[in-house]
Amino acid sequence: MQKTFTKTFMSENRGCYELSQLNACSFMNSEEISLASILDSEIKLKDKFWFVCRKLATKEQNQKIAIGVAEIVLEIYESKYPDNKAPREAIQAAKDYLNNTGITLEELRQKRAAAAAAYAAAYAADAAAYAAAYAAYAAADAAAYAAYAAADAAAYAADAADAAGKDYKELLLTFIKEFCKNA
């Protein structure tokens, strides 16, 4: 995974940021911009994940990121729906598939469908649980966008679960920093 960038690279890969917004970011004060400085910057958590997932990570890395973020916020869902194990099973199925430990693509799809049903059921009841279940569903998705979808859902779940007394945003930020450091 690339860990240093030029201003030109950042300008060409800024996503929805206007050039003036990008130039206002603290990391743009350096000629050589480190990934660590981007992750430590003032930009939103979901935008940090977008940059890593869409611009730097491979498909396999994206799948690992999706699994990791889903695991972080899974407890939000399970605290609301302790008897529904579909999101946990979808995460485990994604891990098993990624590690090539005997699960078929069809079995993964079935687990993903069950997690999709769980997040649909949670939608009306609780926003944080819905987002946590969506993160699990996205973790089981084989597409490369799954990590950003899971991270975005996890960030949403973290916002909605502020009252839980746990700083999920900090957990998610720590996760992505460690992941990138070790990638």
List keywords for this structure.
two-stranded antiparallel ribbon; globular; 2 domains; 2 strands; 10 helices; mainly alpha
Quick recap of the structure?
With 183 residues, the protein is mainly α.
List the helices and strands and how they pair.
Layout: E1 4-5, H1 7-12, H2 19-23, E2 33-34, H3 35-39, H4 45-56, H5 59-80, H6 86-98, H7 105-123, H8 127-139, H9 146-160, H10 168-182
Antiparallel strand pairs: 1-2
How far is it from the N-terminal to the C-terminal residue, by CA?
A: 6 Å
Strand/helix succession: EHHEHHHHHHHH
Alpha plus pi helix count: 10
Structural domains: how many: 2
List low-pLDDT spans.
none
For the biggest β-sheet, the strand order reads: 1-2
In this structure, how is the largest beta sheet organized? 2 strands, antiparallel
Instruction: Report strand %.
Output: under 5%
Describe this structure in words.
- It is built from ten helices and two strands.
- It has a two-stranded antiparallel sheet.
- The chain starts with a strand and ends with a helix.
- The model has no long low-confidence stretch (mean pLDDT 84).
- It folds into two domains: 4-43, no CATH class; 59-182, no CATH class.
- The protein has helices at residues 7-12, 19-23, 35-39, 45-56, 59-80, 86-98, 105-123, 127-139, 146-160, 168-182, and strands at 4-5, 33-34.
- It is mainly α.
